């Protein structure tokens, strides 16, 4: 975990000797993200645009892994890393900088790191990416079975939770294994390029504890014209349906109890939305594992996402407990704040350190490779 974040363990009261060492397992591609901010408008063809800010950080699945680790969860990531300087930087930033377990990850000789350039302007972003699919890990010499190292994906680590990216027509065997071994699987999803929007085409949804689409995705998958109606329809398929509503906040339905919760979004000036969805999922996973009430989980997830968009970069902008404590300390001193609205976040009082650094905090660095 980052050294500037107080060592808060949100699961401390729930831990037992026989619990898995891993709180959350996830897998996916790691990108080197280069983020340009402070653009006045979208780049115009045939012209040169100058950005007022720039940052570099591990991206892709690293956004969510970092967000989870900064919230105090023991996080394990299985990913391929290039053997170039970008891959070395990403590995070091995640393992040494954030304390993420990379024992299931591997470096691929002769393979270069995928790269994304993200341009943020007017609260939106445009991205350009380049990369090639990583080859499978080579078999281990001298083993009788010829099994690959590491043991993932055949044997994912035992964990309290796992985050899976669902895609139409794709089934990842590790998801079923993780669920069978007791992990709560949280499924996120992207845009359906097939245009079918068929929940039956997401086979791993059957293993999910929670499904977290945005409003547009939820309505398309359920053939409804209201995000809240979509959440109730999804709750017939998964125990927890969480629909993010953008500037309107989020809405969730517990399919087991019928409980529903709605939490408005926090109004902030967005610098860069990169990774905000990943941070939201990380916040919701944290609250779920800590067994908080549904409305508190939504509020916490929305808060962490709101804090993240005020900084540039995906993983670099993910807030830790220091940032959350600083925000809570500051917001209660603002005369313009509605006391009733602040009451929604009163549960933070029992979680946060009594002292916090000044807000706003800055994490991002302009580039990689500076000598200490």
Automatic annotation (TrEMBL):
Domain of life: Bacteria
MF (Gene Ontology): kinase activity
UniProt-listed SUPFAM superfamilies: Ribokinase-like
Domain (Carbohydrate kinase PfkB) ranges: 52-319
UniProt keyword annotations, A-Z: Kinase, Transferase
Signal peptide from the UniProt entry: none
InterPro entries in the record: Carboh/pur_kinase_PfkB_CS, Ketohexokinase-related, PfkB_dom, Ribokinase-like
PANTHER family documented for this protein: KETOHEXOKINASE, PHOSPHOTRANSFERASE SYSTEM TRANSPORT PROTEIN
Name of the molecule in the record: Sugar kinase
Organism listed in the record: Streptomyces globisporus
Lineage: Bacteria, Bacillati, Actinomycetota, Actinomycetes, Kitasatosporales
């Amino acid at each position: 975990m980052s050294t500037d974040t107080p060592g808060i363990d949100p699961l401390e009261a729930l831990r037992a000797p026989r619990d898995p060492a891993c709180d959350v397992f996830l897998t996916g591609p790691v990108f080197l993200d280069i983020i340009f901010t402070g653009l006045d408008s979208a780049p115009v063809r045939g012209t040169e645009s100058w950005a007022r800010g720039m940052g570099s950080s591990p991206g892709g699945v690293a956004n969510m892994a970092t967000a989870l680790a900064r919230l105090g969860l023991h996080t394990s990531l299985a990913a391929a890393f290039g053997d170039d300087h970008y891959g070395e930087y990403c590995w070091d930033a995640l393992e040494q900088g954030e304390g993420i377990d990379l024992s299931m990850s591997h470096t691929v000789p002769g393979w270069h790191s995928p790269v994304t350039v993200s341009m943020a302007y007017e609260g939106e972003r445009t991205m350009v990416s380049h990369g090639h699919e990583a080859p499978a890990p080579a078999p281990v010499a001298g083993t009788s079975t010829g099994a690959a190292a590491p043991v993932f994906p055949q044997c994912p680590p035992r964990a309290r939770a796992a985050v899976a990216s669902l895609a139409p027509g794709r089934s990842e065997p590790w998801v079923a294994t993780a669920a069978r071994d007791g992990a709560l699987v949280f499924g996120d999803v992207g845009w359906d390029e097939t245009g079918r929007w068929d929940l039956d085409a997401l086979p791993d949804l059957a293993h999910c504890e929670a499904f977290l689409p945005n409003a547009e995705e939820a309505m398309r998958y359920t053939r409804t014209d209201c995000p809240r109606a979509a959440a109730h329809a999804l709750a017939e398929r998964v125990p927890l349906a969480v629909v993010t509503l953008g500037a309107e906040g989020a809405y969730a339905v517990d399919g087991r109890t019928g409980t529903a919760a709605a939490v408005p979004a926090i109004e902030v000036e967005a610098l860069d939305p990169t990774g905000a969805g990943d941070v939201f999922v990380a916040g919701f996973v944290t609250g779920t594992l800590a067994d908080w009430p549904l409305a508190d989980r939504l509020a916490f997830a929305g808060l962490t996402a709101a804090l993240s968009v005020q900084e540039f970069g995906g993983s670099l902008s993910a807030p830790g407990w220091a940032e959350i404590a600083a925000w809570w300390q500051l917001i209660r001193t603002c005369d313009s704040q509605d006391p009733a609205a602040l009451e929604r976040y009163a549960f933070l009082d029992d979680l946060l350190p009594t002292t916090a650094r000044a807000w706003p905090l800055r994490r991002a660095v302009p580039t990689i490779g500076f000598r200490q």
